[in-house]
Amino acid sequence: MQPIAPRTLINRKVLLEIIPLSARTIYNMEQRGEFPCRIALTSRNVAWDLAEVEQWIEERKSSGIQAARPGNTIGA
User: Fold this and answer.
1) CA angle (43, 47, 54) in 5-degree steps
2) HEC secondary structure over 6-66
3) Which of 36, 32, 42 is nearest to 15 (CA)?
4) Dihedral (Cα; 61, 64, 66, 67), 10-degree rounding
5) pTM of the full predicted structure?
6) pLDDT digits (tens, 9 = 90+) for 52-76
7) Do the Cβ atoms of 74 and 32 come closer than 8 Å?
8) 56: closest CA among 27, 19, 7, 4?
9) How many angstroms separate the CA atoms of 55 and 64, rounded?
10) Of 29, 53, 33, 49, which is closest to residue 41 (Cα–Cα)?
11) Domain spans of the chain, in order of start
């Protein structure tokens, strides 16, 4: 049996320090499958896997995709 690699979990406060988005925006992105899902630790406490969040950041950096702005119509 292989040893399980330790994982670092971060709470909402730390997540919001790393990702400059609102908690509501992150929640909406999770629901659409665009952001790593939270892990329910208890009925009132959630956390995110730091490695998954860092991977999401790297994917965003390397994708070159610019986020669409509401009301912004390209080529109009």
Assistant:
1) 160
2) CCCEECHHHHHHHCCCCHHHHHHHHHCCCCCCCEEEECCEEEEEHHHHHHHHHHHHHHCCC
3) 36
4) -50
5) 0.77
6) 999 999 999 998 766 666 665 555 5
7) no
8) 19
9) 15
10) 49
11) 9-59
